[in-house]
Amino acid sequence: MSKRIPLIGWIALANGILALIIAVIAFNRKPEVREHSRTIVKETASASGEEIRFRPGSEADTAPMLRDLSKSLRKTDSNLAGLDRKVKKLEEKLDKVNENLDYVAGFIKTVDPRQNRDDLKAPRRAGREAAVIASLRTISSTQEQYRARYGTYGTLDELSTANFIDPILGSGKKSGYDIRIWAYENEWTCTAVPQTTGETGTRGFYVDHSGVIRFTTDGSEPTQNSPALD
């Protein structure tokens, strides 16, 4: 953050502007005043990296130059004042941000980090469970198509080889679940249980040729007697 101009700096700048105005007023009255005015112009211009040369009899050109220089200094003074106001506003905003950060830091300290991690995992588990339920519905519908073509129900490998399901589902591992099928001529059953209970899912699922999906709440392998999914 840039430093503010001290009060003594503002006073010095104001005195410089006042001296220039006085020089303009008195310029045409005395030769020594004209010479002093030239010196002021040269020193001021030199500070800005410019060079000014006076021609004999060019005193009349100096007064407008001094007036322009005075205007430029007043404009600079106004710009500095505006910058100072912006700096103050920025400092106020930073103070507000720091207050908010302190509040957040204090709040985080009151939260159990372990509980916080569990809360973050909940949406992911729910998403995986929704994905595996969709996979079981796919298996249920494709089993009937497979049986209509081959006269029997198919295993995961058979359904995948015949392109009824995708290879990932056919591998028996999808969405953080282990999926297995027992297929016979007139019936089949399928289970899906979390690979890591509580991490990849909390419920286990079951479906068979009836098309009804059932579940357990503790991740254990469900059966045909488990409660049905709504």
Question: Care to describe what's here?
Answer:
- Strands 1-2-3-4-5 form a 5-stranded antiparallel beta sheet.
- The protein contains 6 helices and 5 strands.
- By secondary structure, the chain is α+β, with helices and mostly antiparallel strands.
- The mean pLDDT is 75.
- 18% of the residues are buried.
- The protein has 2 domains: 7-108, no CATH class; 114-216.
How would a crystallographer describe the biggest sheet? Answer: 5 strands, antiparallel
Count structural domains.
2
Overall helicity: 55-70%
In what range is the share of β-strand residues? 5-15%
* Shape by Cα distribution: rod-shaped
Q: What is the helix tally?
A: 6
Give the C-alpha Rg: 43 Å
* Topology, number of strands: 5
Can you write the helix and strand succession as a string? HHHHHHEEEEE
Broad structural category: alpha+beta
With strands numbered from the N-terminus, the spatial order across the biggest sheet is: 1-2-3-4-5
N-to-C terminal Cα separation, in Å? 61 Å
Mean pLDDT: 75
